[in-house]
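Researcher: We're teaching a course module on how sequence relates to structure. For the next exercise, students receive a sequence and then see the predicted structure as tokens, so they can try to spot secondary structure elements on their own. Here is the exercise chain.
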Amino acid sequence: MSFAWRNWTATMMLGLSLTAQPLMAQTKSTMNPHLDAYARQIGQNSSNQTTPRFDNIDLLRKAIGSLPADQQASAPLVAFGVPALSSIKRMPHTLPTDGVAGRMIPAVAARGEYSPLSFVVAPLTNIDKLEVRASALVSGQNRIDASRVDLKVIKVWYQTATSWHSYFADPTSRVLIPELLLNDENLIRVDHQTQDNFLRVDYPEGSKYVWISAPISVDDGKFNHAVEPVADSDKLLPVKLVAGESKQFWVTIHVPNDAAQGLYEGSIELLADGKTVTRLPLSIRVLPFELPLPRTYYDLDKPFMSLVYNHTDVSYHLDKNGGNLEQAIAKSRAELKNLREHNIFNHMMSGRRELTPNNEKSLVLDFQLIREAGFVEPIFNAFSASGSVFYPKERNPLRYQRYLDDARRVLELSQKILGHSNLYFFGFDEPGMTVLLAQQDGWRDLQKLGAKIYSTSKESHYYAVGFSENIANYHGDPTRDKSTKWTMLGHQLMNYAAPHTGPENPEFNRRFHGLQLYKAMYSGPGNYKYYDQHKPWNDFASTQYRGFNLVYPTKTGVIDTMAWEGFRAALDDVRYATLLKMLAEEAFKSDNVDTVMAAKKAMIWFEETNEMTSDLDTFRLEMVNYILDLRERLGKAGA
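Model: And here is the predicted structure for the students to work with:
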């Protein structure tokens, strides 16, 4: 491993270690007129609880003292680089004790990867218009264009009290939660007195804010996201800052697939009311490889699949928008693109129980859009393996034969359009034993046609139908004891509801949808769901469950969340682990004993490191170290 890389790793580890200690505790305090004025203001208004106030003025003083000399006496704000995928809920009144003042935490990414970063701005005085701009990133003669540095402001709004860690609703209280990644923070208006959210709808006659926090007893269900003109801005707009209220920003660097390896440097420029007040140094180490598609830990020949339940089908959007085919296609295309960009490789369709002429037309469109978006095999739920047609006592022979003919046609269309017929048909969702057993002769007939069977499952499925369920999607905690029984049959086990989507904590989503499943010998997450199709914008419309949202739908696309970014990182963790395993297996066959032993050491480290308690950023960096070492030993260092 090169000395330069070890130096970079040490720098990264130092940046991460700074986040574990009180910020710059040894730095001498420096006076700042904006800070002095703010301190006097909150001192004079100490009895006024509505005056915005930070929780740690001393931290601000120390942070200012760590800034460049030309900024210490005049800075109207302090910016802190913070870990993006953190479990810390960053609120407007809190200052980041895990932050680094005046600079971004360095990033490391493979070619083609989306790398998340974040920073918090703490204003010392009111600022009417804060503009945030990213420069290009440069490494010698090589360049990553500024257009590949996406900037968002994180919107803090009201959700049920359980929302940071749970998909279960708590209708008794409402709390502020950082969640949405927006270009226009004014898309959502928050009323702190009533603890309500309002969504801006831009009607032709003028914009209107719609109440989206009505309890179930009041919500009339008439707000239709598929037709209402709700849309975020195309780029980050200026934000307003109030002294004593911080704002968090999100940065995503999309590394080009053909980027040369090296250290790329640029900056994030902050302008307060038109004047540049600081430039945060921004750097990313581009690695000399692309990440492979994820494969399972126990068998590199088997895919580690990633899917979320969704309703991106053309027929669903047609039904929601009143029959506008052009809009339905555009909406499906936008959602499929968003899914693929977040490491969803295997598409989960809505499922049809029959193939009418209209159904076939929309299925052809769906297959074409899936191919265009770049999804890989297998594809799930292109056709349903459930319904009354499966009940022997109720089965009409003609109707059943028509069903099998439809199923054969779906497989033919897939082969023609997608280039494969590797399809999993979906049985009854969470079936009881009577229903499960009633499907068996139907499942057998489908498998004779070439289809495979996928079902939401539990432990009893193994004993009852383990011979016929090609993929079982288990709920609950993933363990090797559960997965081994299925993999010995040549079948695969996936996981959902551990937890469902809904928790907003990005680190939580990263931890439970990636390496935990991978090391438990599972074949990926099959979770519920992309967004709630009923009342996705209202977190208070149910007393039992919160909205199952990784994103929030608009008429033309979706709005991302921090949780969704955590999900993407989870799958990238698995892709790094897959590359490490691929290199190790290649090294095992080497004639060089040192290379063989180095590969075995790498896999011992990976197996013995606890992915549920380790810091996942550090875990990722250690995987990178082992990958680079094995690449060098195998003669791939310059590839």
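Model: If you want an answer key for the exercise: The longest helix spans residues 562-588. The two ends are 15 Å apart (CA to CA).
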